[in-house]
Amino acid sequence: MEEYLKQLNESQREAVVYTDGPSLVVAGAGSGKTRVLTYKIAYLLRQGLPPQSILALTFTNKAAREMKERIASLTDERTARRLWMGTFHSIFSRILRSEAERIGYPSNFTIYDATDSKSLLRSILKEMQLDDKVYRPGMVQSRISNAKNALITYKAYEQNKELVQHDIDSKVPLLREIYKRYQNRCQQAGAMDFDDLLLQTNILFRDHPDVLEKYRSFFQFVLVDEYQDTNFAQHLIVQRLCEVHRRICVVGDDAQSIYSFRGANIDNILQFKNQYPGCRIFKLERNYRSTQNIVNAANSLIHKNTKQIQKTVYSEKEEGSKVAICSSYSDYEEGYAVAGKINDMRMRNYDYADFAILYRTNAQSRILEEALRKRGIPYKIYGGLSFYQRKEVKDVISYLRLIVNPHDEEAFKRVLNYPARGIGDTTLNKLIVAATDHNVSLWTVLNDPLGYALPVNNGTAKKLSDFRELISGFIERNVKLSAEEIAAAVVKESGIVSVLFQDRSVEGISKQENLQELLKGIAEFCEIRREEGAERVSLADFLSEVSLLTDQDNDKEEQANKVTMMTVHAAKGLEFRNVFVVGLEEDLFPSAMSKDNPRAVEEERRLFYVAITRAEENCVLTYAKSRYRNGQSAMCSPSRFLRDIDTKYIYASADVATDGSFAGTRRSSAFSFPFRQPKAMEEDAYVSPVAQAVGRQARLTRMEAASSSPSSVSTSDLSGLYVGAKVRHDRFGEGEVTAIEGEGGNAKATVSFAHFGQKQLLLKFARLTIIE
DNA sequence: CGCTCGCTGATTTTT
DNA sequence: TCAGCGAGCG
Known about the structure:
Layout: H1 10-17, E1 23-27, H2 33-46, E2 54-58, H3 61-74, H4 77-82, E3 84-87, H5 88-99, E4 110-112, H6 114-127, H7 137-149, H8 154-159, H9 161-169, H10 175-188, E5 191-193, H11 194-207, H12 209-218, E6 221-224, H13 232-242, E7 248-252, H14 267-270, H15 272-275, E8 280-284, E9 286-287, H16 292-302, E10 314-315, E11 323-330, H17 331-346, E12 355-359, H18 365-375, E13 379-381, H19 391-404, H20 409-416, H21 425-438, H22 442-447, H23 458-478, H24 483-493, H25 496-500, H26 506-531, H27 539-546, E14 563-567, H28 568-571, E15 576-581, H29 598-612, E16 615-629, E17 632-635, H30 640-644, E18 650-652, H31 661-672, H32 679-685, E19 726-729, E20 733-741, E21 748-753, E22 757-762, E23 768-770
Parallel strand pairs: 1-7, 1-8, 2-3, 2-6, 4-5, 6-7, 9-10, 11-16, 11-18, 12-14, 12-15, 13-14, 15-16
Antiparallel strand pairs: 16-17, 19-20, 19-23, 20-21, 21-22
Helix pairs in contact: 1-2, 2-3, 5-11, 6-7, 6-10, 11-12, 11-13, 16-29, 17-18, 19-20, 19-23, 23-24, 24-26, 24-27
The chain binds a DNA duplex (15 and 10 nucleotides) through helix 5, helix 11, helix 21 and helix 28.
Pfam families: PcrA_UvrD_tudor (PF21196), UvrD-helicase (PF00580), UvrD_C (PF13361)
GO molecular function, one term: DNA binding
Binding site for ATP: 27-34
């Protein structure tokens, strides 16, 4: 047996080596699911499958990146890079770009994020003069999203009597009209929303059998991670690709299905064996992560759910400490108790990085943050608004989007009067009216105001044409320039820099920093691509990568030694030695929205299951008796889920007693911790926005602070480079040259780095220093 | 057209 | 608590 297969247990190994037909791997929490996937891919590669014929779909960018790294260490960097591995959204956006004209989209289509879609819906609602209290944008958005995830186009929607009737009954009969207009506007703008990426892929495959055939034979083996979280659109894409060769392996855990609000359908995994007759089912039941008490407590909880695949997750680690339940009087004290407990436990040889605080909603993070800060505990928060959603960043990105695709309506609207150039809402609305009347994009109207009879006075007309000139100028230059050059030109010549740098306030400075960060990120992205051999890194290249990037992409370096704070959703797939799950109260966890719906409550229970099973050694559950909600303090009762856990695995903590004694403790302790912490501490406590910089997904670590423009890079003398030389790279550290090929400007060296595996580097760009 | 002030309403989770 | 929106004024 091959060496690496010995690193697997028997059931893992069986799952890995079975490649003859469809298989389902039911992987309990902490059972080595990722391990199976990575080894299986490695196994397929050893069997001679070329990497580019393997399609591996994950749920998050982070999961894809990590798996790629692990495969790179089992094989090599180059092979790993050629795998088709990524999220559904990123993989199929790539495919859609190359096949775009088949379905009537430009290949440089924009991807609308949730904010863009909502804003577009708002303006449609306004145009239709609908009351946004009845047609709440959020509700409309999720209805459309659900329809798309169920592959119901607006045409199908109009014709579906049931849906139309349902809308009439819910007093929102015009939903179908909104959906139709929304879709037309997206198409007009050359834009797809997140759901379109999946819907349009399905349409592409449905209507173009030759295209489907191409990808069918191209992807000889398909693997899907987190299958329990796939929706119908994703499920069908996979099925289309696999129904002929049936070389498919899906991995998941029905007990961890927590995304039904996004259309995920747990039946996809429950019904998999019926979809693929003859499918083999492998169960991974041994949990390597947590102690017995934690596993048993989680099991006793999840058994309260009805629908699930039968399995027995067990741990052979030590029994461990019981799951603690702590109550406190208020949310404030809850935070304080958690912070105190972390400090206590740190005395027992734990690092800050060994702790995670998990909560149901992002809103809960604030008060916890405050408590940690007062105690001087360093922390990092995941989630919340991402780097790209910050106004100043999104404004710049909008310019870039507009340059690549001037029909992009949402980008157009953001940029038209930013920086202020005297084109206000009135003029914008006139543009929109003209555009909708003629069924063209805003940009088209802007290019021929007279032709579309735009009712503006001379002054405004001049302002509009100035704006058009500005953007057209960028578009022309963009043909030749690289992403970083055009971005630099944009911030300078649009006036963004001068506006932003006038503001000396704290927020103003932070905005400037974010802008710098963005530019640096773009430069970094370009440099990485060049090192990989790209000729010119265009703005379109950059945007196509960046639009699907989320905030979860943080840097290992930055993660230093800090407590992790995140929602339970965000914590899926992660593990920590000590986990605090806070806010276990009715109407919060389970959320108030789900309490009347048994299915939804089951999902909340699974969510809680996910939370508990993140813990390796200690798991603390806390609830407060009162909590601030909507600015007002409200009484709350303990979560029903606390009663679902078998009491024999629970320890109801005495140190946070329910009586007044805790309050007294708090006061005295609070006194001994001055409100303000030393400055260094405060700065340290925040995750720098640097951590979220662009291009992270493409590379592993961050460049040194020195900002670099490639033109200024001194091409160090590498003529003395030879195979076997020890070299140092700014980001990859030390390594050994294993091969050199090409000459002059195209000379490439293959370097094997100690921590980053093999890389091929263009000597022209890679800043290598020979150290031996 | 642009800015400021005050009100209101929302809060579940994310690619 | 806070962001986002609308009204009203300069």
